[in-house]
Amino acid sequence: xxxxxxxxxxxxxxxxxxxxxxxxxxxxxxxxxxxxxxxxxxxxxxxxxxxxxxxxxxxxxxxxxxxxxxxxxxxxxxxxxxxxxxxxxxxxxxxxxxxxxxxxxxxxxxxxxxxxxxxxxxxxxxxxxxxxxxxxxxxxxxxxxxxxxxxxxxxxxxxxxxxxxxxxxxxxxxxxxxxxxxxxxxxxxxxxxxxxxxxxxxxxxxxxxxxxxxxxxxxxxxxxxxxxxxxxxxxxxxxxxxxxxxxxxxxxxxxxxxxxxxxxxxxxxxxxxxxxxxxxxxxxxxxxxxxxxxxxxxxxxxxxxxxxxxxxxxxxxxxxxxxxxxxxxxxxxxxxxxxxxxxxxxxxxxxxxxxxxxxxxxxxxxxxxxxxxxxxxxxxxxxxxxxxxxxxxxxxxxxxxxxxxxxxxxxxxxxxxxxxxxxxxxxxxxxxxxxxxxxxxxxxxxxxxxxxxxxxxxxxxxxxxxxxxxxxxxxxxxxxxxxxxxxxxxxxxxxxxxxxxxxxxxxxxxxxxxxxxxxxxxxxxxxxxxxxxxxxxxxxxxxxxxxxxxxxxxxxxxxxxxxxxxxxxxxxxxxxxxxxxxxxxxxxxxxxxxxxxxxxxxxxxxxxxxxxxxxxxxxxxxxxxxxxxxxxxxxxxxxxxxxxxxxxxxxxxxxxxxxxxxxxxxxxxxxxxxxxxxxxxxxxxxxxxxxxxxxxxxxxxxxxxxxxxxxxxxxxxxxxxxxxxxxxxxxxxxxxxxxxxxxx
Amino acid sequence: xxxxxxxxxxxxxxxxxxxxxxxxxxxxxxxxxxxxxxxxxxxxxxxxxxxxxxxxxxxxxxxxxxxxxxxxxxxxxxxxxxxxxxxxxxxxxxxxxxxxxxxxxxxxxxxxxxxxxxxxxxxxxxxxxxxxxxxxxxxxxxxxxxxxxxxxxxxxxxxxxxxxxxxxxxxxxxxxxxxxxxxxxxxxxxxxxxxxxxxxxxxxxxxxxxxxxxxxxxxxxxxxxxxxxxx
Lengths: 744, 231
What we know:
The complex is a heterodimer. Chain A is of the alpha+beta class. In chain A, the strands form five sheets. In chain A, strands 7-9-6-10-8-11-12 form a seven-stranded mixed sheet. Chain A is globular and about 85 Å long. Chain B is α/β, with parallel strands linked by helices. Chain B contains six helices and eleven strands. The model of chain B is unreliable at 222-231 (pLDDT under 50).
């Protein structure tokens, strides 16, 4: 088959890229080789339109045990001889087409990134975005994604301990599915994704290879269109039982001392793992593709190179120790096949029944090597004028705030996500310390140490849409705030950068400014970005999604028993707000959902003010002066008060401290850097002394169940809880009935 | 006494069970690989535990393949000889598939996986115990004759209830017949339950109700006395 620029374009390479490939090879590539470049130079694998900006993020810290981006996931020291391994990754495109398998394999893929480094995954989180929940399409996607995550994660046996879900029209066609995994590893037992040692055998372990997921990496590097459903074979199919066995076998084989290097096969399958491991070790490989176990007959070389069949690993083994490896995989009844060896010339040679099918310099394929690194133009999108033009004075303060609160508490973005999370096994592994005592971040025990890890994912993308720079800072700040309110010290960040098409200068403007804001905030909180993932092309003919730079953050508690919880403990405890009340309604759920205002600036946020609030909360926790801590986020102060009351069904008696502030902004505004705490009467004097000179206000006190606001009775906490807990289930059930009626 | 915890390739609560028994309850625990058969070091005073998880993937009926594993042949012999066997979640499903316990576990009434704390009442406490469940197929079902004989012989060891201990339809998370959360065999040496007591044994995790269950069912030898007094 003759390879031309037309072939290259069909494989989603540009004309310039095709020329560059010819130049690098000194010849025209054959079809197999072109396919290899297509996968490796896809946005998904090469980060070609993002890497220049990613390098500007703070990526160093004294607790980092591997350099950012160097391995499959970030690795940071937690003391006592252990490290935490963590990463977040997107599976947006597959989930848009086939939500169940898309989400399931997203979970599988991120766990492999953790255990390929030798760590046992102990917790997972996920950050999800869907369109309007009133629509049947969204309900189908939500049910499928949640079922997929539940199916894979529950069987694999790692608890889903946290995450976030938002419903916004902008995600109608392009849902976002970001999965995060966190693992623990003993120092010195980690494995690097590096090929070393000339003559060392290369092993293929795990599931047999089929034709599923071929071209997945390049599929994820294009907009979603009406034709996307035809790309169904680009979606992978997962088998959590197989992955569970692969996990145990991989951790066991590491103990034999036979493993030189290991990398999981995710995007772009064999070509990606062989080229990245070789390039990093500055070696080459000879691979016999016919030795790869397959589950379909007559697979071609390019299919084997690009297949994204799940639950597979590439492993370089110390020569002479092959039998040790074989024994472990036999024990777990998993395919294990020696498919080649490490060579000294930096060239990857793929053979099929003795015939050379592709010959490629590993370096030229990979990020940091020959893969293109583009500089893209960007320009402020026009919608910013509308944002700047918003005048909050045009919004009248409603007479009946109770009625507003009643609506707010059932908005899917605010209401309990119970319908979703009861479908996840959140307790397997017996590490989740938040089940019986909730905190703003999930606190898990890093066995076998007594340390706690505080885990959270955060991104209010409407804030980022309104102001990419400030919005990304807020995402980082909120993650850190959640960790601090849980008694933890922020440690490090993994990010999942979900944006539209990078060739759209307006989208790229959002991306660039979000990176700038994220970098500044991460520097302030001393939380280096240890790795992550970029997902562009979350776009369709109607436009891009909200810019969504999801922050996954890990915090450390020296002892898991010292965690702080978010729930009020007893009636009579005094409630304080740490931070400053403002009449700011910008970009709030209140303004967006109740008043229908799409364009308004991001809410109030100052990085230094935020940092000071967090420091203050951390010191109050350390001095044991407070009973609970909960940050004010979506829905504002009133919703935060309810959330603190729900767990023990305690109410509040609160009065707005400043009558000059507009009341809707006071109770429902989303100005940042605010935390509500409760204090026992006998600690009040010490608390007030500790707060001297700091902005705070007394709101009222915890009650046995009644909710009193500004002297008016707003019912019982149990009534609010009923509304909050069941809002999403009621909405979905209502639609079930409608569907049933239509079917009749 | 000592415990043996069977590890199937898809077990994922085996380590939790080991942790709870060894570290929280200070018991002697041996892990048993599904391909092995040897239980010669165990006496009928000891207890074999089948932990939760997805034994062999459970893509067929849960536990349907596990019952044929080499280790299960030995466990069946051990049980028939009077040895104590406790199956939790997937372990309960395997015990039913192995016909060591009567009845079956069907898909939850709401067709979804459910993970949350529930209350159960039965052996080990007069009060409702808070214990987590985590299963997609935990709806206990048996025919009328079997149910009648279970009730007659006091073989229903746990029922779902509310916080006050009332056994009501609203407190039944999965649609199980008669709110059944756990049963034992006629010989009172084989116990199966859907809720996970091993997830409720640690002070750090804030719930230790599970310890009462292990103590009552298999450690203190009081099970039979208590069973007789159970409603």
